[in-house]
């Protein structure tokens, strides 16, 4: 990364919304098993392997460079003082050195902010666990990456065999443009701007690229922002048919009387989970069979995401009942939806979300899952027009906006407004598809990869799922002032899975008939 690259508005928003109580990094707790008779030093071998592959993911060597007075979004620039020993650490795990202890440590570490003076990622290796296991806690700021690009980084960290593959060394660095080259490119781009036919929307969006200085002084910031505004205006004008159609579809959906029930279902009731959070976290993970979950989805006529939502619904319902705090109205879940096209591995955020009722007001697990399938279908239909609109509005940039948004985020955090305002959604549930084949890192077999995501004011509980081999690894993260020991909720998930399977199991007579 030889040139400065300005963050998109969506990426930068994760920086602006961050407060000491609400870190905006995502991560994972991976569990490895060392080969029998292993005599090496896993930490040093893992660190050396990552160091040799850093060029595959340039974002790992990029630090933030702020604009003067925060008048514009910051940029990624290569850290000329990069030191891998400041990013990969050997960590100690107290007795009894088991996964439960590791989960408590991960919850504590996930609450700590990343140092913005360095590239925004850290790895912690925990050796000496039971059964020859190794723990790896990793975290990376959400400004760098979303779930889709995170899965792409898997190819840098992991191998398909115990023997690490040979990775090609980095290619020659790109030579930065001279000022006279920038001026010449500006003239060419200016001619292109007025000769580019506005009707060719797709061509305009892909081909129009005005030059940038790539510098951080005030004059360069203003110049680059002016170039960005010109680009944005042309691209927005070329996409006006798409924008107008999307807006028309949204208005039609809202005006349709049949949509009113769906909109009412998306309204979130206040619960004990929707309060301001502290600067501490509680984390726990558990796993279920992927093939069994897919069989359950097939039996119910839904999809795997519907089963994940039903499991989250059942667990939250059980917990709230145990606390005497289950509302009469169904809770809702915020569900991130990726906009990333297949093959796109850019390290940025390409995502928006939908809100779905999760039928916590229904006691019968079978009826609850069937209701969730119907509600998720309606939510997708309601949010579909926004998919085409989001790329057009997700990178709006206004001078001075960064400092304003940061002040507003801090005021919201300090005022505890989330304790009195109605929640936008009750919980966050995300399902990230992962590899089906066995993976290795520095010769150790990957057993599990539990996601560790983000808790926010007003939406304290986040349940993120990562598929790997024939399992679904669930990661529960929550503000510790809301649920001090989220393991209690995590332990309810296998029970809820068994209840759902039993609800959709064929009658004994059908089983007997099939056997005959």
Automatic annotation (TrEMBL):
| Gene Ontology molecular functions | diacylglycerol O-acyltransferase activity
Q: Please give the pathway this protein is involved in.
A: Glycerolipid metabolism; triacylglycerol biosynthesis; Lipid metabolism
User: Does the keyword Aminoacyl-tRNA synthetase belong to this entry?
Assistant: no
Q: Which domain of life is it from?
A: Bacteria
**What is this protein identified as?**
diacylglycerol O-acyltransferase
Q: Which organism is it from?
A: Bradyrhizobium ivorense
EC numbers on record: 2.3.1.20
InterPro entries registered for this protein in UniProt: Acyl_transf_WS/DGAT (IPR014292), O-acyltransferase_WSD1-like (IPR045034), O-acyltransferase_WSD1_C (IPR009721), O-acyltransferase_WSD1_N (IPR004255)
Q: Which reaction does it catalyse?
A: an acyl-CoA + a 1,2-diacyl-sn-glycerol = a triacyl-sn-glycerol + CoA
Top-down, what is the taxonomic lineage of the species of origin?
Bacteria, Pseudomonadati, Pseudomonadota, Alphaproteobacteria, Hyphomicrobiales
The alphabetized list of GO BP terms reads:
biological process involved in interaction with host; glycerol metabolic process; response to hypoxia; response to nitric oxide; triglyceride biosynthetic process
UniProt keyword list: Acyltransferase, Glycerol metabolism, Lipid biosynthesis, Lipid metabolism, Transferase
Its family?
Belongs to the long-chain O-acyltransferase family.
Single GO cellular component term: plasma membrane
């Amino acid at each position: 990364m030889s040139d400065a690259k300005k963050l998109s508005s969506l990426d930068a928003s994760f920086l602006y919304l961050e407060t000491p109580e609400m870190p905006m990094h995502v991560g994972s707790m991976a569990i490895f098993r060392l080969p029998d008779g292993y005599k090496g030093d896993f930490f040093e071998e893992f660190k050396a392997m990552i160091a040799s592959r850093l060029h595959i993911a340039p974002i790992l060597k990029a630090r933030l460079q702020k604009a003067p007075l925060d008048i514009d979004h910051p940029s990624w620039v290569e850290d000329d003082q990069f030191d891998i020993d400041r990013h990969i650490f050997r960590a100690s795990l107290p007795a009894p050195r088991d996964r439960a202890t590791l989960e408590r440590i991960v919850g504590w570490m996930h609450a700590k902010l990343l140092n913005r003076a360095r590239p925004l990622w850290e790895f912690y290796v925990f050796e000496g666990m039971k059964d020859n296991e190794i723990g790896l806690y990793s975290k990376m700021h959400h400004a760098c990456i979303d779930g889709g690009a995170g899965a792409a980084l898997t190819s840098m960290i992991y191998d398909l065999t115990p023997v690490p593959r040979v990775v090609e060394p980095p290619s020659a660095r790109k030579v930065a443009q001279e000022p006279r080259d920038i001026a010449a490119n500006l003239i060419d781009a200016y001619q292109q701007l007025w000769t580019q036919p506005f009707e060719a929307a797709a061509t305009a969006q892909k081909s129009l690229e005005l030059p940038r200085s790539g510098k951080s002084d005030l004059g360069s910031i203003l110049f680059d922002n002016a170039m960005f505004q010109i680009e944005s205006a042309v691209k927005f004008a070329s996409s006006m048919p798409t924008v107008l159609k999307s807006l028309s579809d949204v208005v039609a959906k809202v005006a349709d009387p049949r949509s009113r029930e769906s909109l009412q279902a998306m309204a979130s009731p206040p619960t004990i989970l929707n309060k301001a959070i502290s600067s501490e976290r509680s984390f726990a993970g558990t796993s279920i069979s992927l093939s069994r979950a897919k069989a359950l989805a097939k039996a119910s006529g839904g999809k795997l995401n519907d089963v994940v939502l039903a499991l989250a619904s059942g667990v939250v319902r059980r917990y709230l009942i145990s606390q005497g705090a289950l509302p009469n109205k169904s809770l809702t879940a915020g569900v991130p939806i990726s906009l990333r096209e297949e093959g796109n591995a850019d390290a940025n955020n390409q995502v928006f979300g939908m809100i779905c009722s999760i039928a916590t007001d229904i006691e019968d697990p079978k009826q609850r899952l069937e209701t969730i399938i119907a509600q998720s279908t309606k939510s997708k239909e309601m949010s579909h027009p926004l998919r085409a609109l989001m790329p057009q509005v997700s990178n709006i940039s206004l001078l001075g906006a960064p400092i304003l948004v940061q002040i507003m985020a801090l005021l919201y955090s300090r005022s505890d407004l989330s304790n009195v305002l109605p929640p936008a959604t009750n919980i966050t549930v995300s399902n990230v598809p992962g590899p089906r084949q066995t993976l290795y890192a520095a010769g150790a077999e990957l057993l599990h990869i539990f996601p560790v995501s983000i808790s926010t004011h007003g939406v304290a509980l986040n349940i993120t799922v990562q598929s790997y081999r024939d399992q679904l690894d669930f990661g529960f993260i929550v503000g510790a002032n809301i649920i001090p020991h989220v393991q209690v909720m995590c332990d309810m998930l296998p029970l809820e899975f068994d209840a759902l399977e039993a609800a959709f199991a064929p009658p004994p007579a059908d089983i007997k008939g099939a056997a005959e």
